[in-house]
Amino acid sequence: MSQLDKQAHQRLQYLATLFERHPDGMVVTDAANRIVEVNPAFTQITGYAAEAVIGQDPGMLSAGHTSPETYAEMWQALRSEGCWQGEFWDRRADGNIYPKSVSIALVRDAAGEVSHHVAIFRDTSERKSAADQIFQLTHNDALTGLINRTTAESQLDQMLTSARRDGGLVAVILLDLDNFKQFNDTLGHAVGDGLLVQIASRLRDSVRASDVIARLGGDEFLIIAPDIDNAMSVSAIASKIRRSLAEPHQIDSHLLYATATIGISLFSSDGDDAETLIRNAETAMYKAKSLGRDTFKFFAATMNAAAHERLKLENALRLALEETTLQYAPQFRVHFQPQMDITTGRITGLEALARWQAPEFGMVPPSTFIQIAEETGLIQPLGDWIFWEACRQLRAFKDQGVTDMRVAVNLSTQQLRNENLPAVVRGALACYGLSPTELELEITESVAMHNPELTKAILGQLHELGIVLAIDDFGTGYSSLSYLKHLPIHRLKIDRSFVRDITSNHDDVAICSAIIVLGHELGLDIIAEGVETEPQRDYLKRLNCDLLQGFLYSKPLPAEEVVDFLRRWNSQFDD
How confident is the model at residue 112 (pLDDT cuts 50, 70, 90)? Predict the structure, then answer.
């Protein structure tokens, strides 16, 4: 054997040894990209024995997670440069998916044609896992899983950019637990940590999915609320957080009670950048602590006055509802507004409307206390009381000789979510000896569109009972007509905002006319709210509206005035 042959033989030997013992996986494919050789590391990494893959396309290893663009880039690089480096996601023989880094090179024969492809790859699972852990440690709080201050400031910057572009309102809410150090000092850090984890969980449950929650360190938390409607909405968020945290916390064998002090700043009135807004929220929080803790303050003094007034209203509402349901000096009453049949001129229905006479505030507008009730969760007990009181009063009207009269009651989203609603309605009808046709239940478009399948199911049960169902404030929401047509409703109520200018605004005329035609095509009665003038009445009559409701006929009446009014009015049409 010549010296040249010996050198070539030795070279082949150490290349073969390298192929067999290399810790990285190696695979050789032919010109048609069929596997012709793999090394032991290939089998160790993939779980496939050599005989299972020889003759196969390497694509059999793919997990399907690598984009077509990556493969196209690979082939382009091999054709132009003869090599490529990148990452794939493959699947092992046991089904597990893993990432791998790959280097591929072309081998050409004496004629310059591609004869083989040689690929060397390495499992990068551990490296990626370590990188993910580093990312988590860099961006998240290890204890609660919430993002940290750095990440929160970055996300706040992004939200502020959007708010500047769209004219949106962003709230920065900084929360500090009261006397948290006592828990650590008396019960130990393990209990304190457990409390912080529960606090984080309750904060998640108290805010919207679009809101951002961060732990700044220690017992300080930050909530960023983008796209809020108005400043008072932030008061509702702060109140909800305080109520949620005030519920007892069970940590091991300890029952703990925690409170928090909250500071709030608003973009852009209290700052135009993340650092300023967080600093001003902190200033507001420390001001709140100086005034007694377990409260919240806005950075702007004018907002504090408004928030304080709202908080007083909320507390008064809770007390009023408790006293009313217990029949102790009830502050709530139900008034009834008549509904007139435009064809006969007779009053055929009444809408039950809640009124609140508060000792401290006087007569509180429904638009004010209903909104607070919805934001605080009090709308469920308030709505239930209105419903039962309306049924009780209808029984009283019947006992005084009022017949052929239907009472309409509004349902809130929370009431309609209650799957026991049909059973509650049956119970009220039985309790007061009422016919189902004497009761009408109204829901707004937005309520109808909330959880459509549940809404459809519950309304279906009420329909089977014989209850009259109506869509209130029609035309003001974002309903799907294709969905509404499948609901078992009997009436559409045109919102007063379209009636107000019907004699002078062409758009309002077009909307009212379209609603009436649409409703009649679907076999529904149409009732218009807010009718205050004879020209409005005449216009709606020409459009073939079925019923009218408004101050032209009567303001909402106390229950004790209803019977006399109905007798006087309907007596005009007696033979």
Answer: confident
Token code pair at residue 566 = 């109905």
Burial 45-69 (b: 16+ CB within 10 A, else e): bbebeeeebeeeebeebeeeebeee
Tokens linked to 216? 């700044």
Cβ(278)–Cβ(266) under 8 Å? no
The CATH label, of 3.60.15.10, 3.30.70.3400, 3.20.20.70, 3.20.20.450, for the domain at 317-569 is 3.20.20.450
CATH superfamily assigned to domain 140-299: Reverse transcriptase/Diguanylate cyclase domain (3.30.70.270)
Q: What is the CATH number of domain 3-124?
A: 3.30.450.20
Q: What is the three-class DSSP state of 137? A: helix
Q: What is the pLDDT of residues 43-93, one digit of tens each?
A: 999 999 999 999 999 988 988 888 888 888 899 998 888 899 988 888 888
With CA atoms as reference, report the closest residue to 567 among 400, 342, 437: 400
What mean pLDDT do residues 105-112 have?
86
Q: How far is CA 249 from CA 161, 193, 239, 257, 365, in A?
A: 38, 12, 18, 6, 37
Q: Which tokens go with 454?
A: 């549940």
Token representation of residue 105: 């090179």
Q: At what angle do helices 180-187 and 189-206 cross, to 10 degrees?
A: 140
For residue 268, say if its preceding peptide bond is cis, omega within 30 degrees of 0: yes
Q: Using a CB cutoff of 8 Å and minimum separation of 24, what contacts does 357-366 make? A: 357/331, 357/333, 358/316, 358/320, 358/331, 359/331, 360/312, 360/316, 361/313, 361/316, 364/313
Task: Give the mean model confidence (pLDDT) for residues 181-196.
Answer: 87
123: tokens are 């499992």
> How many C-beta neighbours within 10 Å does residue 230 have?
9
Q: At a CB cut-off of 8 Å and minimum separation 6, what does 180 contact?
A: 192, 195, 218, 219, 258
Which of these, 450, 332, 443, lies nearest to 382 by C-alpha position? Answer: 332
Residue 163 has pLDDT above 80, yes or no: yes
Q: For 276-306, what is each residue's pLDDT tens digit?
A: 899 889 888 888 887 778 888 888 755 556 6
What b/e readout covers 21-44, taking b as 16+ CB neighbours within 10 angstroms?
eeebbbbebeeeeebebbbebbbe
Where exactly are the structural domains of the chain? 3-124, 140-299, 317-569
Return phi, psi of residue 133, to 5°. Answer: -65, -40
Nearest to residue 227, comparing CAs of 267, 176, 193? 267
pLDDT class for 174, splitting at 50, 70, 90? very high
